[in-house]
Amino acid sequence: MRLVLLCLGAALAACSSPVPSGAAADAPSMPDPTRTPMSQDDRMAWWREARFGMFVHWGLYAIPAGTWNGNTDYGEWIRDSARIPIGQYGSFRPQWNPTAFDADAWARTAKAAGMRYLVLTSKHHDGFCLFDSKETDWDVMNTPHGRDICKELAAACARHGVVFCLYHSIMDWHHPDYLPRRPWEVATRSKDGADFACFERYLHAQVTEIVTSYRPAVLWFDGEWESTWNHERGTRLFDLCRSLAPAMLVNNRVDVHRGGMAGFSQHTEAKGDFATPEQEIPPTGMPGVDWESCMTMNRHWGFNAADAQWKSSQELMRNLIDIASKGGNYLLNVGPRADGSFPPESIERLAAIGAWMNEHGEAIHGTTASVFESTPWGRCTVRAGDATSTLYLHVFEPQKTRVELRLPGLTNKIRSVRVLGARGEVAPFVFSVFPPVEFGCVVELTDPHPFATVVAVEIEGRPDIVHAPRIEAESEHFVHALEVTIGSDSRTATTTFTIDGSDPLPTSQRVTGDGRVRIDSTCTVRASSFLDGELASNRVRRTFTKVDPIPCVEAVAPGEGLTVSQARFEGTALSQAETARPLGVTGTATRIGVGQQPGEQVQMRFSGFLNVPDDDLYRFALTSDDGSILRIAGRTVIDNDGLHGPIEKRGAVALQTGLHPIEVSWFNATGGAELDLRWARPGAAFAPIPSAALRH
Ligand code: FHN
After folding, report:
1. Predicted confidence (pLDDT) per residue in 527-554, tens digit
2. Which atom belonging to ligand 1 lies closest to the Cα atom of 301?
3. Which end of the chain is less crowded, N or C, counting CB atoms within 10 A of the terminal residue's CB?
4. CA of 133 to the centre of ligand 1 (A)
5. Ligand 1 pocket, 126 CB below 6 A?
6. CB of 322 closer than 6 A to ligand 1?
7. Which residues have a Cβ under 8 Å from the Cβ of 222 and sit 6 or more positions away?
8. Is the pTM above the cut of 0.70?
9. Which domain holds residue 501?
10. In this structure, are strands 628-632 and 658-668 parallel, antiparallel, or unpaired?
11. Could you report the per-residue pLDDT of 314-329, keeping only the tens digit for each?
């Protein structure tokens, strides 16, 4: 093992920092949502740089402040959760008089916390509008306060350099044409005469109002999960936004593919510029996807006077660091009180976060995700540049102590290592160890910050990390041949591979070009990366198996399509078959889907034969909300069962030319409903199964 000790004493002082040390980099110029962006990257640029924003949930629900009939656990859903009749809820309107509302104070607080943008609820599910709407009198102008909150806050944000954004709920519990009604008020609030098309026109008219009047840089839709909303309506609304403000960002909740609280589904046609995980941080981020995790500071979005379960400032700060290290944005919520003031607990936390951001903002704003697979001492964010890059090592060690920081696989030359805010000293040497390639340094934490102490490592060029090579393929089984891709993201290392079971050597076959290798018999692919002829990564291997296709069945299936049987279903998973009350065969289907209005607490089963054109391995993609199962030739190919939003799962099976029994089971509990099955042969894109291939 070669241990290279690099004494960087002189060099550590010689290099200037690429970004002002300590002070946060200057805020970017304010985006113009009405301009025509050159590209999606151009549209997203300010938002990706921002990394941190304030969410504000405010409306009539702040007046009861979470309490109703003795229950103190309500929030912004109080009208529905406490079953407050629409007339009684209307009594809050004449009580709306937030005399302490100070838009400049809100904007200043967000700015001081290091929040680059602010998203205000223009209308939440209760339908009450915090703006002057020509479309309804259910708005702030028809209250004792009589002031346009959105207008005042938009102006204040512009004055303080905070990007103004708006949340807008599709679901609307006030408008007479919105459907479905709340289940508990169907008897008292008839849906007769309700016309959702009229509601859609109202929605479009109000979106036009808020976009043209307040020019939000983001339109953050929500409440898209009910059965009346669908991809077609989401597409129309998304297209309206693009036509009104081409550079305005629209989140993925404009459409019906949010994928539940996880915030994202792989649906290819899904509209929206960024994914929206809620109250959670995706464990590995969402590589290649813009995403923003929204969270509360306590347990409620809207103000709840009794909610004392406040997350600590350290937890909130580490959420931001963790999210940024995974390449996402953090939208942290404040629920103002009825008088327009922020709860003191929110102010306290935002001030603590702001103090850290003032000292360490360069390690968050303008950074991208970590380039390392593991950083046990904390997190890493990256500010990458062609000539020089900075790796920000966020050390979650609150005690005064020495820490050894290791960065496996880093091949770049080190230009400088410094501790932001002078909270520690770097030992006079750093080292690089081969194999595997690794950067290490020892830091004496003399004044560690309880949230995180940041070590800035400046390197030459963009980060070049030698990771273990990737061995990827559409499936681990094949019938004829299979294309395997061997990848390494290092610019400097050499990756070699073998398919004869031997360990790769520097002289073994090199991975070149796009790294694609074609195999036609069962084998194990092994790959390793080398630097200067020495092993610089872990060895990886993956076995691919040639299989015989499942024989077809002798059957006569002259009919096109599958038979469809339905049942009333009150379960939360298809496995709870006992809760189904069969309604019998209701027809045939030439495509596997749920149609326009599938209803709730319903189960459907599509059965018949799949007519396979050639012997091959067939891949399937099954998307459903809620659960679904795909069975072919009596085996479960995909199990996507359970209560969930639109989630896609994939599977594969080798099939002989001819007919194979197929069965797709699906259920919808409540809310959104979706079912979509696609298939693909090796090397082809997924596509709907042609009706001629579905037989009964
Ligand atoms: O139902 C809303 C909820 O009230 C809140 O607005 C959150 C914030 O993202 N969104 C919905 C729940 O997913």
Report:
1. 999 988 888 888 999 999 999 999 999 9
2. 5
3. N
4. 23
5. no
6. no
7. 124, 125, 167, 168, 169, 170, 171, 253
8. yes
9. 470-546
10. antiparallel
11. 999 999 999 999 999 9
